[in-house]
Structure formats: C-alpha cells, structure tokens
Amino acid sequence: MFVSRLILSHFRNIACLDIGFDTPVTVFSGRNAQGKTNLLEAVYFAALGRSHRTASDIDLIAWDSGEAAAEIRFSRGGLQQSLVYRFAKNFSSAPAGSGAGTPAVAKQFFHNGFAVRPREAIGLLAVVLFSPEDLYLIKGPPEARRRMLDTEISLVSPVYYSQLATYLRILQQRNRLLKQIREGQARLTVLDAWDQQLAVAAAPLLERRAAAVKKLSMLANLCHRRLTAGAESLGLTYFQANLLQSAAPGPAALPFLSDAPAIQARLAKNRAEDIRRGSTGFGPHRDDIIIELNGYNLRSFGSQGQQRTAVLALKLAELEFVKSEIGEYPVLLLDDVLSELDGFRREQLSLFIRDRIQTFVTTTDPADFSGLSGSCRVFRVSGGAVCEGG
Fold it and tell me: Which residues span the domain enclosing 6?
C-alpha cells in the first residue's frame, strides 16, 4: 500500500496543497502549530472517515472558508485508486438548539470518481497511527484500548465497522429506555425486545474482538521479545467487564460470554442496576484489554520504560496484524513520536519499517529521523505552507 499524492484545499490551515510522494519515508519538519499534523490527519481521515484529533468535522474546514476538500491517491494490490472527501458548512441545517450561527457540515466521499457513503470508504486505505498520546495506551482508560482495537479491526473488516455502528445505535436507544423506565415513563416489559436486539448485535463483535486480541497478543509478544532480546514476554487478554462483578479485573474474573442467549441472560441479571444507573453495565462498550508483562499487569506494575517498550511492540504488532489480514502493510503515520522514544527504541522502529512500510513522519527536530534517512524526502512546513527541503 502506497500513497502517491495528497491534494488539499482549505483543510485546517492548509489553503492549497498538491504534493506527490515517491520514497518510502516522507518527513514533515517544522516548529509546533505550523500544520505538520494536519497532513497526517488528512490521510488518516481518508482511511477511517474520522479525525484522530476532533469529533467535529467542522474543525477540519479552515475558519475563513465555507468548504474544504482532500484527495488521496494510492495503490493497493497493485491497483491505483483515489479517495476524495469534501466538507461544506451548512447554516440552514444546523441542529436544533445548537445556537445561531453554528453550522452543520455536509460531507461527501468519492472512490475512484464515484460517490460512496462514508462507511463504504472505510478501510479502502489502511493506516496505522503512532502519536505521543499512544504512549499512555497502557496506563490510560479502557476507552483508549477499545478504540485501538475497534480501529484496527474496522480497517480490515468493513462488516465489523457496520456491526459496531449498529450495536452503538441500539445501545443508545436501550440507555434512553432505561432512563424512561426509571422515571416511570415506560414499562419494564418493553426492555425485553431491546435486550434481545442488543445481545444479537453484541455477539459478533465479541467473537471478532476476542480473535483479534489473540492474534495481536501473539504478534505483540514476538515484537516485544525482539525489542528486549527475549528477556520479557508480553501478553494481551480480552477482558469482559461487568458493573456487578466483584472480582478484580483479570482473565478469570468472569466466564467469557459471546453467544446472544448468554449475553441476553446477563443483561437480564443486571437489569435492576442498569435501571438505577440509567445505562447498560455489560457489553462490548465496557470491555478492556489486559496487558501483562511476564504474567503481571503492566498497568499496575510496569515501569515507564517497560510501558513504552510495550506500546511500541503493540504498534509494530498492529502493522503485522493488518498485513496478515489484507496481504500488505498499511501506511504508517508517526506524529511527533520519535522524540518521545529513546535511541534504542527509535533504532528498532527504524529497522522494522525500513524499505518495506511507507511512513510519514512529523518532527520538530530533523535529527529525530536520522535513522530513517535512507530513502527519504524532507518537507518543511511553516504556516500551512509546505516546501521541499529541511
């Protein structure tokens, strides 16, 4: 997989850009807040239909413009393809209660010149992003690890992405009903139908996640043993959380449930507490990934150095996971992360990606990418303008 061209118009602070790529590594250097990450964000959005930095598409449109557009040309499986997405501010369809002058955003996607729904574009281009925030992946909240897992599976399985969207929609409706029952505005018996729908929607997600974590665990351990010269072993386990669970988090805390009848039974058992809280306490939206080093929970017992090594191993495993599923490596986006890694980890990352994975790097210090300088082009970014040369 190789991105050959990026064309932007009024995308954040980048008014106009048309740039081609022909080397394995492309480096965007410059001071902070100049637009380096915006370039990576444009590629990331093409792959996943959302930004990794904001939940609002309007943030992607330059503040003094009414519309923005991006085109990414790339090859996959030897075939040349293009993805185009366009945004336009629409004041007339602003959501009710959003306040005067707050526009909605009309969004369009095109694949090889034909209009497609946004969800149909997900995964056509595969990317893996590594940013400074990922260094908190282990000690951060479960939401971060769930997001990582869902992102990787969605890249290789559009069906999973659609199933996840369906589950979240049903979950939102069930939670709304729980609040209505608590306030005496709905009957308890209405919940039966929603429990069944939620259980049916949850089952394939749980099976796919568990299989993905099993494969990621094997790949991450191989990568981690390489980074530590075989001194340590890394393991990942899918953890099914439950608000009524009294046992401490861990693989044996709760028997794994992945079939719809068992999930529905668990929802029924939790019903009283769900109504009291007004939210669903069991399901894929609450689960976690337990990361262990030599059998110990890395979040609780690992040093900062061990945690950073484990995160790097996870990112390398993500690259291998995508390749094992689609037959080729994804594009790697390194967003100002090299300065966060010590010399050894930086060297290991360079050795892993060199000459086989197209990589886009942002940095404030050109010395950070000295290990990637084999087949490399450097672009200077300043005030949204991009020119070649460090």
Answer: 2-126+330-388
- pTM of this prediction? 0.89
| Bridge partners (DSSP) listed for residue 26 | 360, 377
The pLDDT, as a whole number, for residue 167 is: 98
Domain end, chosen from 301, 318, 344, is at: 301
Q: Find all residues with CB under 8 Å of 114, minimum gap 6, and list them.
A: none
Pairing of strands 67-76, 79-90: antiparallel
- The CATH number covering residue 64 comes to 3.40.50.300
* DSSP for residue 123: T
pLDDT at residue 92, as a whole number: 65
Q: What is the pLDDT of residues 323-368, one digit of tens each?
A: 999 999 999 999 988 878 888 888 888 888 888 899 999 998 877 7
Residues across the chain: 390
Same structural domain for residues 172 and 279?
yes
Q: Which residues pair with 16 in a beta bridge?
A: 9
Q: What's the alpha-carbon Rg for the chain, to the nearest Å?
A: 22
Whole-angstrom distance, CA of residue 344 vs CA of residue 350: 10
235 and 179 together in one domain = yes
3-state secondary structure of 127: strand
Tokens of 116: 């497609």
**Torsion 356-357-362-368 (CA) sign:** negative
Chosen domain end from 256, 281, 301:
301
Instruction: Report the SS3 class of residue 153.
Output: helix
Same domain, 98 and 182: no
* Residues 6 or more apart whose Cβ sits within 8 Å of residue 147: none
Instruction: Give the three-state DSSP class for 252.
Output: coil
- In whole angstroms, what separates CA 155 from the centre of its chain? 9
Q: How far apart are CA 355 and CA 137, in angstroms?
A: 27
Question: Distance between CA atoms of 171 and 311, rounded to whole angstroms?
Answer: 31
List of the chain residues with pLDDT < 70: 91-102, 243-254, 369-374, 390
Q: What is the CATH number of the domain that holds 238?
A: 1.20.1050.90
Which token pair is 378? Answer: 């450097």
Looking at residue 343, its pLDDT comes to 83
Integer Cα distance of 41 and 381 in angstroms: 14
Q: Which residue has the tokens 């595969």?
A: 126
Per-residue pLDDT at 351: 85
